[in-house]
Amino acid sequence: MKFLIMLTHTEKEELKALLKTKKKIVLSSHSNPDGDAIGSLLAMYYYLTNKGHEVYMVVPNKFPEFYDWMPGSDLIINYEKNAKKAQQLLKSADIFFSLDYNALNRIGPVAEFIPPSPATRILIDHHIDPERDKFDYCYSNTAFSSTGELIYSFISTLGDIKFIDKSVAEALYTCIVTDTGSFSFSCNRPETYEITAALLKLGIDAEKMHRLIYDTFSEQRLRLLGFAISNRMIVWDDLHTSLIYLTKADLSKFNFEVGDTEGVVNYPLMMKKVNLSILITEKDNKLRLSFRSKGNFSVNDLARKHFNGGGHRNASGGNVNKPVKELIDELKVVLDDYSKELNYELVY
């Protein structure tokens, strides 16, 4: 099911008027920011700066260093490191943008300063079931590959394509390429490629950007990947499911840095027999689950129903507080109820 909330004509005109004069604007994105989150922040930062606004960016915690190459990434305020400054900005903002998340609980402690704020609240996101009542304006469509693609549409809707320069284009391209796995999933809309072509025409170097995003592994990150597959991967043939688990001790052994486990969950899907891949990582006395699936099996439904999470049909996450072994045993029991749904073979 596709979830769609776009702007009415009245809302579009209101936003045009709102953004016509200089405002103090704070942009936010979700915890554990990924490429779509960072790209969305920077795209909106440069777009709104080009329009003459005073713009700031806030994230709840650290993002992977392999996004440090992006122009403007050093301007992003990490709430964990600089809470006082972030709080001051949030309290004094005229406009607050929520990018790439559908609920305020996705931004952790940052959310505490949103409801009391008199700022106009605007959501741009492509996840299902956005908290519509928490925002003054909501631009949401789950059919889009990424929030970055949705931002391009948002800017276009406001008649502001002229403000998309190379800096905006690089950020939007990062959103699209990372949230589609380099155009390997969520990539069947012709419009995705039309927008990508428009970004390329602005002079971005797609080959160079691919290297900057994907070819920056440290030796320890690559060794962690090998260890995860060789020593921590379980395959349940009857459930067409693979599970990889990494404990705090495992991560410490390989000098874990933020972002080192990004993409690990995708590797088991390279096996023809696997339709569901799960990654468990132990951090800060909590277990983080990442789910990926092929075809029509909804990991969003699975994560929402059983693991305090959600996301997209084929890519979701969750969080639990329990020992790793207990969670693995629970997963096996839960997935037994989905055995028929998981027993399918995609046509190649």
Describe this structure in words.
With 348 residues, this protein is an alpha/beta fold. The protein has two domains: 4-214, inorganic pyrophosphatase (n-terminal core); 220-342, Diaminopimelate Epimerase, Chain A, domain 1 (Roll). It is built from twelve helices and 13 strands. The chain has helices at 9-18, 35-50, 83-92, 147-157, 166-179, 190-200, 206-214, 219-231, 248-253, 299-306, 324-336, 339-342; strands at residues 4-5, 24-29, 54-59, 76-78, 95-99, 120-125, 137-141, 233-236, 241-246, 276-283, 286-293, 310-311, 315-320. The strands form two sheets. The chain has a seven-stranded mixed sheet, with helices on both faces. Strands 8-9-10-11-13-12 form a six-stranded mixed sheet. A hairpin with a 4-residue loop joins strand 8 and strand 9 (241-246). It is globular and about 60 Å long. The model has no long low-confidence stretch (mean pLDDT 95).
Features:
7-stranded mixed sheet, 6-stranded mixed sheet, 36% helix, 19% strand, Diaminopimelate Epimerase, Chain A, domain 1, 2 domains, inorganic pyrophosphatase (n-terminal core), 12 helices, 348 residues, alpha/beta
